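writing this on my phone so excuse typos. first protein, seq and then structure
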Amino acid sequence: MALLLAAVIALIPLAIAPGRLFYFDVTPKVVLLLWGTAAAAVWWTAAGRAAGFYRASRAARWFVLALCGMAVSLAVSTLASVNPALSLGGSSWRYWGLLTQLAALAFAYLVAACCAGQPGRLRVVLRGVAASGLIVAAYGIAQYFGWDPLLDARGYHVGEGIWAIMRPPSTLGHADYSANWLLFVVFAGAALAVSEEQTPWKWLARIAVTAGAVAIVLSGTRAATIGLASGAVLLWRAGNPARSRLSGGHKYVALSLAIAAVSTVFYVSPAGEKLRARVHWMLEEPAGGARLLLWRDTLRIAGARWPAGYGPETFIAGFALHQSADLGRAYPDFYHESPHNIYLDTLVAQGVAGPVLLLALAASGFAAAIVSRRSVRPNPSAGALAAGLAAMTIGEQFTSFTLPTALAYYAVIALLVSLGVPSALPPWPVGRRWPRVAVALICAGVWVISGIRLWIAENALAAVRRDLDAGLVGEAANQYAKYEHWRWPGASADLWYSRRLAQIAGSNADPLVRVQAFQQAGAAAQSATQTTEAAFNAYYNLAAFYARKNDFMHTEESLRAAISFAPNWFKTHWMLAQVLQAASRLKEAEMEAALAVELDGGKHPEVTGTLDRIRATLRAASIEPAHK
């Protein structure tokens, strides 16, 4: 069982399928979690292990209560959601809806119960984390130095010239998520290094710690780097057995000085050019970009639905409706998919219960670490895992959970709670296992079927993209119908499908293909207004479709609908001003253009130019003699 859990937690961050699945860095991870949790739940309940885990320690009791409370809160917030279907399945960028979150909570419980009072099992899980983390870290380091056999490097390069930066995502989709997951690797590796009895695994742990720390720094992620430094200081200051076995006394000081010297040489060398560029970007926005305004607006909108929240995965639409003009002016080209803070994310999704329960989960982990350190035979892993939990908590204050980072956070808490159980737990009596097995089978059936549906749908959507790239619009339509049949409830790819078809319709393809693509693009654009998590974006796309048909009435209707969902987005006001100008409604056009200029914050000269042209037309009209 421990080997199965270790395999799942090791494979999830590694799972990517470029070309095979549409969201190739998200979907395989979700499917692995669903299937892995299903298998582990049935196995665990059938074996009847860990009777009385709830009563094994105070930390275990609080951990189980917090998990159950989080599950109930998620279910309530999904039922009360502004978009229940979206909250059930999740958004396409992370699939972090009710279905996936319940699987992650169940997986965390299984890790804690399996490892409770069993140091050998805990080491098996830590070995999986270290092995996986070494691969993830090595890939991220290779990406920094320009070698990437799987992904297009242009996707994680930003800027040009000497200030061009590289944010290597490794296999996690984005540098922020990769760095925050590697925090788990670094401190889980440290825990393994001080508790492992076999030399090869001990060396693997040490290498994983080193590679993970290097990859975090090269990712250019400020929050994770601060978390790494804070966790290292906490581990050293704690004075636990890990201190003497990892470094100790003057050796620790000497090692620190050596690391500082090597880091300095690397930073000023040609190889450190992209890291220096990243530091330059950081100094230009010391407050973390839009985060302060984003957090302020998030707190303001969360107050409107504090009892149960807006529902999981509904942030994009809800925030766009209430985003302040200040944030719009400061960052007009952004729309925000999350508040970039785990506690604010759960506050918006679940109401006040979300962050309280998340804090309770973390508190159960820290409490278990304290108990373990004060016991007669303290486990040397406790200090390193507690430092890791602190580091991850710091890092996650500047980003939101994705499946790998959330699972790592829950797992480190589960491992700490397992350390608070002094001895192995007895099995359940045979006659009392079957009700639990029945519940596990039902849940496993839901997770397995959901994983199959998601895999088939994403595979079909990847085929759609390949067909469209080849200009096979008819074949793409057949594959898209298959995707629609199998996809999860909630968000769909209608918006992407419409825009991709519109590109073909405006290309130099065969005229019959262009006509076919244009017709299908219109149908997908209409459907997207009901299926995308960003309705304002869908209506803006629909307006562009009607504008190509010179259908000014429906263009205006679509733009006004988009404005109703995102009133402080400059693009819709700017496009509406041009539509009104074409209809000779110059006064209305001037008002919309002036509002677009205000919300744009002077970032785009073409927006100001539209207002200037409209006003020039108005002035010319006012001095022309009246026609007789």
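second protein below, same order as before
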Amino acid sequence: MRKLEVVFVFLSVIYSFQSQVVSCNNGLHSPLGIPLELSATFGDIRPNHFHMGLDFRTNGREGISIYAINSGYVSRIKISPSGYGRVLYVNHPNGKTSVYAHCSAFSKTITDFILPIQCKGFLNEIDLILTKNQLPVKKGELIAYSGNSGNSTGPHLHFEIRQTITELALNPLKNGFSVNDTLPPVLNALKIYAVDENGYIVPGKSKIIKVVTNKKGILQIPKDVIVVPVDFLASNSKLAFAISGNDPIGKKNSSFGLYENMLIQDKDTIFRSSVNRIAFDDSRYVNTYEDYEEYKLSSTKFHKLFKTKHNPLHIYHLDEVGSIVLTPKDTSKISIVLKDVNGNQTQLKFSVIVPTEIPSKTKPFYNSKDYFLPDSSYTFQNTKVRFDIPKYTFYEPCKKIVNLEKASIGNPSEPIQNSIKVTFPILKSITIEKQYIQVESGGSNHSLKTNWIGGKLVAESKFLGEFSVKIDTIPPMIKTSNFKETDSLITKERMSWKVSDSQTDIVNYQIFVEGKWFPMEYDLKNKVLVFKRNSMMRAEQEVEIKVEDSCGNVAVWCGTLCFSELPQP
């Protein structure tokens, strides 16, 4: 173990007495060379996705050793400017795959394997699928170093367990790992809704109810009863609930996502969810698992204790929507139970009273003429634009907003599950390669990856808003970041350049030293190109960088740099 890592271990041991200590079970090896402390758990709600693994702190530092938790083989190696950044996948004989994401570097064995492949194809970004015999690893073998690559917001290890065949993400705290935790989940607020038979929320029919702890330490709502307002339900609508809360693990001021939620009506369990496994294709359904509108309004995460009819998430134990059917003069005993992975439990009990009269059956709040419906597909077109919307793009019925003259569709504040396809005729006044489709959504402009098919511009978008064809003939900009071109001697091992493009995305970047290609990385979140030079680069060297955007505009940076000798490792 390196000296620096020993210091990290010492500091971590001191801190872990009041932290979230995670242990490896079933003879697994720890994925990190320091004690495992959680910063995020499986199933935590994130923008447009569930968190699909565990995040382990690395003391705010990169370069902590990462080890294979069990024997197996490296099945996939990926390097990308976004997503998981530098990531390894290891398949194990037990039918599971472990994933190690946001790495700063791979082990020497893995680096020596991928470097010739990168150099041969001039590939800075790779996505390699490997066979069983190419890169076998042993339990506890050093495979990488922790980092901050990809969409990471700070140095840490993002760790996952997946089912190898299906690639379902599994909760590691139910698959070989455990956490030291005796604190029950926290329930802060309750929200009630009127919903239809599909689990769609009736607009304007919701109410937040505060949850408090009485002097005896028991959770309750005011007077332990909810009296449903006379105009809240119609005879064809039902009552549904959501809760706001969190799970403190290890220490009271920590806050993690909820694991298991149950709704019981008169001793019958009508809803139960637990975040044990999630399919990657379904992760965006977090936008209907939570009350998305409430989150956008108040930044409060309400976990629904019901689901829409078409919600395919694997977290639900029952097929039913989870809403409650109530009749006039009805009184129901309701119990809401929250559990964490260790079985620590929180419970809220109350009664629901229905008024003596409920308005008679009303028409559905939506219709196919005025609303986008989740189980329908749509095509809208004129001579200027065409929109193709697949089934199950919308989570709930949404107002049908279409303006083909302005090439505008939908409410930009509405989240969507599937991408809509947008097609424009090409502009004849300029080269097709310089044209791209842009969407203005919620005050922000997003350039879309645009293809040219049959003389038309085609793009897919997960944003609703106003679309248009734009022209990009301006190359990106490149300037030095952590050194100056006028420096008489470059002593740094890692050199960086700021890159920017005012319109489209950077799609290609290359560095040549004395005419020879070397791998470099693009830190997308910081818009920085990073080059790690080797010990053979000394004295004056001609360095050339080429950067290309998605419309084929190329920028070139050239310089003669004098490199110092690097210290021996």
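The first strand starts at residue 21 and ends at 24. thats all i got for now
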